[in-house]
Design a protein that fits this description.
By secondary structure, the protein is mainly α. Helices cover about 70% and strands about 0% of the residues.
Length: about 650
């Protein structure tokens, strides 16, 4: 389908609340200048007001303000987050595998006691694949952790929590049953750090459930975050707040939009307890937010964060989140040396290769993961995207059947089923599956973006724009949604709006040649020839063997009657097409243009070569022969003139 190549990989999970989400970022106050009303769509069928269009164009190309928010800067200064700058030099010294195993066992127990299920799953899975001392003893440096580095030891032996153990066990049972209010009430009079954390965490989760149950289209904040924050601050003032309490304070502060307080609490938590994976994920989510001030504060604070082996996962995760794929692949490969065969790390490596558009390689890695962990559900929507792009109906059908059979009520399964229906051309069923995914999780980014693509396949432009808008509200750094909006407005023949959205997608993914191709085409539609040339050349510099920018540069110069500029690009285009074994109408049209140009320039040998190549096409055989006759006539004329000069 027309939009199938937009199915790009998704960001890893940034939450720790008992079920996997593709993003746990709060909706940012962003106005993306979208138009979903009928009046806007009808306006696309008539000429835009010239004065308004010129003003909008100027704001895009020069960088301006709209509704108090910064628009994208000029074309040559598109911004990007440099994760490598923040994590450069952050190389943790790894202890021996025995010490890592001891720590992971302790982390699994502590996370499970506090109902941090995603973190507990992370630690326990790594524990299974940690190199044994005999096999991987060389992977670490030094011996076991010294006593001062066993930061988790005091949390394992809490006398006050031991006295309250019966109440805590009862409350944890209620948490497992998702009866959060009852759990909070059962712990309301207890004073141990474990009980206080579980009490406030249960209140927070209760507020999240109420928030998720709000009617569609109603953005309801978590009603409990203010009370939880006040309780934790009072305990911090008394000097009784432990690392897990600081982590929870960071979470609720971030939900309130207090980035500075959130970062301070998370840094304190990680300083006291550097293995707290949930806190590392919150820091990563802060570092990839759209707000420039937030990003600057977080990036500058990386020096104060502890360098312990779990921080290596943050560094790799951060590089992948901001699409620095080469650095991400290197860091995940290093982690794989310490946890050989771990499905969690191999899944991230598969996503890295998918981001690099290496679909077959990514597919192989996913299949290796499923061979070890056949009922794995996390990131299977990404695997289904790969099968969709490759057009493998049989394998996608098998994956969808297993997902439906064993993990029916998860958003990942719903997206797998949606991809299956979409590949079969059942667009309405695909949209129904996407809507089911969103009923399970309103902030499941993949469902919003892919549903936008599906609506456009069905030519429901208004619904498609709305889906992309919701995707951007969930994750403002989702370049797929920005790119989809650009394509939508290009289809509606509203190039000024399309240019704005393409620029946003290119700023988020500057090393993707397709972003620059889209910008070049849009600039060409607006007769911005110099901008179009720069975009096509940027695309060509990223993918040197790609024929598309060569063809567009050639056509652009031919349109301007500058065949001398077009000729080098035409020759490179024809060479690439010959190497790929591709023959189409564009090939013989360009051969004809190049042969005519060389003939008029007097390069008869080159002109003859291209004309003979043109004769090989049945559709252009007559034109090729006519060119050969002209070349032969010119050659005879030149020979006659040469003899006359000699005489």
């Amino acid at each position: 389908p027309f939009f199938s190549y937009l199915s790009f990989p998704l960001s890893p999970s940034a939450c720790d609340r008992g079920k996997t989400k593709m993003s746990d970022m709060e909706t940012s106050d962003i106005d993306v200048s979208m138009a979903t009303s009928d009046s806007m769509l009808s306006a696309s069928r008539r000429d835009d007001d010239e004065e308004e269009a010129e003003g909008f164009e100027h704001s895009i190309l020069s960088g301006g303000k709209e509704d108090g928010g910064a628009l994208s800067p000029p074309l040559s200064h598109l911004p990007t987050i440099r994760a490598t700058t923040a994590v450069k030099g952050r190389k943790a010294a790894w202890p021996r595998p025995a010490a890592v195993k001891e720590e992971l066992r302790a982390l699994t127990r502590l996370f499970h006691e506090r109902h941090l299920l995603e973190s507990a799953s992370w630690a326990s899975e790594l524990l299974l694949y940690c190199d044994d001392e005999e096999e991987g003893g060389g992977a670490g440096v030094g011996g076991a952790l010294p006593p001062q580095q066993r930061y988790y030891q005091p949390y394992l032996t809490d006398p006050l929590a031991d006295k309250e153990r019966d109440h805590i066990m009862y409350a944890r049972t209620l948490l497992d049953l998702r009866q959060y209010r009852r759990a909070a009430h059962a712990l309301s009079r207890l004073e141990s750090n474990l009980a206080v954390f579980l009490h406030n965490y249960a209140l927070y989760l209760s507020g999240e459930v109420q928030k998720d149950d709000a009617p569609e289209g109603v953005d309801t904040p978590n009603a409990e975050v203010v009370e939880v924050a006040n309780r934790l601050k009072r305990r911090r003032k008394e000097g009784k707040l432990d690392a897990f309490g600081h982590y929870l304070l960071g979470v609720v502060s971030r939900r309130q939009g207090k980035t500075g307080e959130a970062l301070m609490s998370l840094t304190t938590s990680l300083t006291q307890f550097p293995g707290l994976w949930a806190a590392w994920q919150e820091v990563s989510a802060l570092a990839t937010e759209e707000d420039a001030a937030t990003k600057g504060v977080v990036m500058s604070s990386f020096a104060s964060l502890p360098v312990h082996w779990p921080s290596s996962f943050l560094d790799a995760h951060l590089c992948l989140s901001v699409l620095e794929v080469e650095e991400a692949e290197e860091r995940y490969s290093d982690l794989h040396l310490h946890f050989r065969g771990c499905p969690l790390i191999k899944t991230e490596l598969a996503i890295v290769r998918y981001t690099k558009l290496e679909y077959e390689e990514s597919r192989k890695v996913f299949e290796e993961v499923l061979a070890v962990d056949p009922y794995r559900n996390k990131s299977m929507d990404v695997y289904s995207n790969i099968l969709y792009v490759l057009g493998d109906k049989g394998r996608l059908s098998y994956v969808a059947y297993n997902a439906q059979k064993y993990n029916k009520y998860t958003p990942e399964t719903c997206c797998v089923l949606a991809n299956y229906h979409s590949l079969r051309g059942e667009g309405e069923k695909a949209i129904t599956s996407f809507k089911r995914a969103l009923r399970l999780d309103k902030r499941f980014l993949s469902a919003w973006t892919l549903m936008g693509h599906e609506y456009l396949e069905l030519r429901n432009v208004s619904a498609g724009i709305d889906a992309y808008k919701r995707a951007i509200q969930v994750q403002p750094r989702d370049f797929r949604a920005w790119y989809g909006l650009g394509q939508t407005y290009e289809i509606l023949r509203m190039p000024f709006y399309a240019l704005y959205f393409y620029r946003r997608s290119a700023s988020l993914r500057p090393n993707d040649s397709r972003m620059w191709m889209a910008l070049g085409k849009c600039s060409e539609m607006l007769d911005k020839v110099e901008d179009a040339v720069r975009c096509y050349e940027r695309s060509l510099s990223i993918r040197k063997g790609s024929p598309d920018p060569l063809l567009h540069l050639s056509k652009l110069y031919i349109k301007q009657k500058r065949e001398d500029k077009a000729a080098p690009y035409l020759e490179r285009y024809l060479a690439v097409q010959a190497e790929l074994g591709v023959e189409n109408n564009e090939t013989y049209e360009m051969l004809k243009v190049l042969a005519t140009f060389e003939k008029n320039k007097g390069n008869l040998a080159k002109a003859e070569k291209h004309a003979r190549a043109l004769c090989e096409y049945a559709m252009a055989n007559r034109e090729g022969k006519a060119l050969l006759e002209d070349i032969e006539r010119l050659r005879s004329q030149h020979q006659q003139e040469g003899r006359e000069e000699e005489e």
